[in-house]
Amino acid sequence: TAEADDILRAWRASAVDFLRKPFRLDDLEVALDKALTESAAAAPTVSAETVVVPSATMPDAVSPPSIVADSEHGATESTTSPRSASASAAAPRVRPTVAKLLDDLKMGAVRLPILDPAIIRLPEFLNSGSWDINELTELIARDSNLAAGVLRAANAPIYARGQTVTTLLDACRRIGALAIVTICFEITVKGQFAVPREPYRTILKKAWESAVVSSRLAPMVADALARKDREMFRILALFHNVGELLAVMMAAQLETASGPVALEQLAADVEASHQDLGMALAASWKLPQAVISLAGNHHRPAQTPEPPLQLQTRSIILASWAITLRAGYTYLPGQDRVDLAGLLKTLGLNDKQIVPFYGAIASWSPET
């Protein structure tokens, strides 16, 4: 099947891969070879209870964060996190209501937000690998809000280069299909995560602003490392923390009549649950596999040992997020303790090299 809940259950069962029907026999052969190779490398024997599900659409093994729950304290998360050890040690334990939410998620009993109809076809463009700029332009033209946002972006200094863009087709050609799709997500997805109650409303707004700024910064960090796939980093950075948005929104819905939860407690709940929630949501929206993997595994490797290119990609996204936080786009307690120095060391960058990034961020507005 192609249902997100089935994909999530497969991952939970330590699936090596996941193949959506209909599939070709050569895709199945490749997936089976990979499954057998990884199983043989992992252990001399394979348990009869091991579940192996092949896939052409999920090329990397994905291992979601481990959530440990007990009846008294709720859940805690086992990850390799960019937060400092002292910050993790001081964090409150996760509430039992959040642990139950994660249990319900495993069972497919959590209702996830659906994409805005205006952009529901955009994941097709991301997954197809072939870009028809005319078709993409026609899709955007059907929604006046999207069309206006794309034209506004095309006339921003980063793209305009002193020339005014007046038509949507010219805007799409100038910006490029992948960046256009990301901009459309920027414009629309923030509306998916909105609640009237404070402080959740403000946190969600600031979290989305942080995601947008991180998304614009990530290609610049990729450029500093001579990566050729710079535009893909925009979509990866935009959605890598989408689980945080969902966690905050659900926290607002779980709030008791006694009043809002303490922000430190909310931060602990979000940190423990956002990778599971992000992976499930990205899969349900049929986003590219790279986005799904990063949403579910950005604080620890999706594979062990982690391939160098995967480690670099993950570190670029986390470093972009950490720089964005340092530039003032924080939204939850404890984010000032994110280990930027460690991420820069992993990437082979230093403080002097990232100084221009802060200047770039200061010139941007998440709303334009």
Structure description:
The chain has 368 residues and is an all-alpha fold. Helix content is 58%, strand content 3%. The protein has helices at 4-12, 25-42, 85-90, 96-106, 122-128, 133-141, 144-154, 157-160, 168-175, 177-189, 200-224, 232-239, 242-254, 263-284, 289-297, 308-326, 340-347, 351-362, and strands spanning 66-70, 74-78. It has a two-stranded antiparallel sheet with strand order 1-2. Strand 1 and strand 2 form a beta hairpin. Helix 11 (200-224) runs antiparallel to helix 13. The two termini are 39 Å apart.
Distance between the termini: 39 Å
Q: Could you tell me the radius of gyration in angstroms?
A: 21 Å
H/E topology pattern:
HHEEHHHHHHHHHHHHHHHH
Strand order of the largest sheet: 1-2
Number of strands: 2
Helix content: 55-70%
Structural class: mainly alpha
Overall body shape: globular
Beta-strand percent range:
under 5%
Please work out how many helical segments DSSP would assign: 18
The stretches of 5 or more residues where confidence is low (pLDDT under 50) are: 42-80, 85-89
Mean pLDDT: 80
Oligomer state of the chains in this structure: single chain
Biggest β-sheet, characterized?
2 strands, antiparallel
